Amino acid sequence: MKVHVKHTLKTDVASALKLCTDQKHQETIYDRLGGSDVSIKRDGRSPNVRLRISRKEPASPPAAIRKFVPSTNEVSHTEDWGADGDGYSADLDIDIKGVPVKIRGTKALQPAKGGCTVEWNFDVSSGVPLLGGMLASFAGGEIEKKLDAEAKILKSLA
């Protein structure tokens, strides 16, 4: 399943990068996103930053995939940021402990009229016979909701 989410921020791309990579801003964002036991580790100097973020997230999967997706999930992901033309981008790798899905993608910040855009693109897949499509679709839908919520938080901080 492909996931694509794009929003416009009313701030310049350098300020958006700070929102997306600064330790304190990330703590604020993940506090507002919910979940529990959030841990954020930041390495590197801007724009070459690596974030490692882990947290526990609630889930309400459909009955058909409940044996694969518990009601609370341990989610961890990395973001590897760098310069990308006039903006910045990060490769993202998301792991949901014990859930048989593969989630890889990118997050990009690019200049735009009146500010900049933040754009996410993910490939979500599962190799589970018969139910893999449903697992990927559920995970993809949850990712879209979280990204829209993150974009709203970024807009409020920009």
Structure description:
This protein has 158 residues and is an alpha+beta fold. The protein has one domain: Alpha-D-Glucose-1,6-Bisphosphate, Chain A, domain 4 (2-Layer Sandwich). It is built from three helices and seven strands, in the order βααββββββα. A seven-stranded antiparallel beta sheet has the order 1-7-6-5-4-3-2. Strand 6 and strand 7 form a beta hairpin. The longest helix is centred in the last third of the chain and has 26 residues. The radius of gyration is 16 Å and the shape is globular. The two termini are 30 Å apart.
Short descriptors:
3 helices, 158 residues, alpha+beta, Alpha-D-Glucose-1,6-Bisphosphate, Chain A, domain 4
Q: Return the domain count.
A: 1
Give the name of the CATH superfamily: START domain
Strand order, largest beta sheet: 1-7-6-5-4-3-2
What is the gyration radius calculated from CA atoms? 16 Å
- Number of helices, where a helix is a run of at least 4 consecutive DSSP H or I residues: 3
CATH topology: Alpha-D-Glucose-1,6-Bisphosphate, Chain A, domain 4
Percent helix range: 25-40%
Percentage of residues in DSSP E strands: over 45%
Which blocks of ≥5 consecutive residues have pLDDT under 50?
A: none
Q: What is the makeup of the main sheet?
A: 7 strands, antiparallel
CATH class: Alpha Beta
In sequence order, what are the helices and strands, one letter per element?
EHHEEEEEEH
